[in-house]
């Protein structure tokens, strides 16, 4: 019987699909340090972003044939090495795009009206400082009419653009590769509307956008470091729901403290699962614990897609 370790869990519907196909699915979360010993007996492992599947683990488990990533980013897996060793590696790239895009807007709407800071402070200061807080949050802004710069115009970047245009924002988009700026927005009721973003350079986005949101994979060098943050429009708002490291965290703290950046909404961090204190406690940072894909709908789509990929793999 094919044995699969779903080490970071799998949606129950995906699990059932695998079991109905005759596979054994173990959803116990085995600690990283025990995996080299315990994964030896399995044919496949599925992970999210928590479990790392590095060279040493692959070498320790010669029975392993498949690595499944329930999600998009595969920076926690030594993909090339696994493939060189004859393993198949799959991810589910489209299943969570909409959920991530919706979190971008949840974060943006919240940040421009100070919701994270207000939620932190009101339970503590409300009774004594109610009017003080009201004054502190007086300079909220609307998103309509503002310019959103999207860096990385792939699946998520495109979903973000559709919502932004629906909200009435002007959208600038940049990608490493040439892309089609046109998008189809499906409205409630099923009508499709054709819209378009404006293509821009990274520099144009950095220097002119009111808000910048990052949607590239993990890149070794920060896209927004000291130099880039110094060139932004004063008071720019930043969103990073992509990968820690895309914004230099120390440069960001300086830029928030000086007012160059008015807020940052972060779902991803340099040090997951233990981001640095200055980030966790900063009043101008809206925090979420890597939940871009954490909706029932996305996880169900991911589970079903992953199950189908694994079933097809072992049944071909
Ligand atoms: N926070 C979360 O829970 C969550 C969930 C899903 C995905 N993500 C992250 O979002 C990333 C993007 O996902 P996607 O589905 O849109 O991927 P995608 O591959 O569809 O799009 C990424 C785009 O980035 C572009 N790109 C790559 N390097 C670039 C660079 N240096 N400058 C500009 N553009 C560049 C690519 O050409 C591509 O068009 C994933 O790699 C993952 O790291 C995070
Ligand atoms: O790349 C991804 O799909 C996201 O980072 C989601 O990560 P998660 O599966 O740990 O939620």
From TrEMBL:
Regions that span the bilayer: none
Name of the protein: D-3-phosphoglycerate dehydrogenase
Superkingdom in the source lineage: Bacteria
InterPro entries: D-isomer_2_OHA_DH_cat_dom (IPR006139), D-isomer_DH_CS1 (IPR029752), D-isomer_DH_NAD-bd (IPR006140), NAD(P)-bd_dom_sf (IPR036291)
Residue ranges of domain D-isomer specific 2-hydroxyacid dehydrogenase NAD-binding in the record: 107-292
Top-rank EC class of the record's enzyme: oxidoreductase
CDD domains found in the cross-reference section: PGDH_2
GO molecular function: phosphoglycerate dehydrogenase activity
Organism: Mucilaginibacter pocheonensis
Keyword NAD: yes
Keywords, comma-separated and alphabetical: NAD, Oxidoreductase
SUPFAM superfamilies: Formate/glycerate dehydrogenase catalytic domain-like (SSF52283), NAD(P)-binding Rossmann-fold domains (SSF51735)
Keyword Transmembrane in record: no
Family the entry assigns: Belongs to the D-isomer specific 2-hydroxyacid dehydrogenase family.
Enzyme Commission numbers on file: 1.1.1.95
Occurrences of domain D-isomer specific 2-hydroxyacid dehydrogenase catalytic (ranges): 8-314
């Amino acid at each position: 019987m094919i044995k699969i370790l779903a080490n970071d869990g799998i949606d129950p519907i995906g699990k059932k699909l695998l079991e109905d196909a005759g596979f054994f699915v173990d959803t116990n979360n085995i600690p990283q340090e025990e995996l080299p010993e315990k994964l030896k007996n399995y044919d496949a492992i599925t992970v999210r972003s928590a479990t790392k599947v590095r060279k040493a683990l692959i070498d320790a488990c010669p029975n392993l044939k498949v690595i499944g990533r329930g999600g998009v980013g595969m920076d926690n897996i030594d993909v090339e090495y696994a493939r060189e060793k004859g393993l198949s590696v799959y991810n589910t790239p489209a299943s969570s795009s909409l959920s991530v895009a919706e979190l971008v807007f949840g974060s943006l709407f919240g940040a421009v009206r100070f919701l994270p800071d207000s939620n932190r402070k009101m339970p503590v200061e409300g009774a004594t400082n109610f009017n003080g807080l009201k004054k502190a949050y007086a300079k909220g802004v609307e998103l309509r009419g503002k310019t959103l710069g999207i860096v990385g115009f792939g699946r998520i970047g495109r979903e973000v653009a559709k919502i932004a245009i629906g909200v009435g924002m002007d959208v600038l988009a940049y990608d490493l590769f040439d892309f089609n700026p046109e998008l189809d927005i499906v409205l409630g009721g099923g009508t499709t509307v054709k819209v378009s973003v404006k293509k821009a350079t990274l520099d144009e986005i950095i220097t002119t956008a009111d808000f910048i949101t990052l949607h590239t994979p993990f890149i070794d060098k920060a896209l927004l470091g000291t130099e880039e943050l110094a060139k932004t429009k004063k008071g720019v708002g930043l969103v990073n729901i992509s990968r820690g490291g895309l914004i230099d965290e120390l440069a960001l703290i300086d830029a928030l403290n000086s007012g160059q950046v008015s807020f940052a909404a972060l779902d991803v961090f340099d040090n997951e699962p233990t981001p640095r204190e200055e980030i966790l406690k900063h009043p101008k940072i809206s925090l979420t614990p890597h939940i871009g894909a954490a909706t029932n709908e996305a996880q169900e789509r991911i589970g079903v897609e992953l199950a189908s990929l694994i079933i097809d793999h072992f049944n071909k």
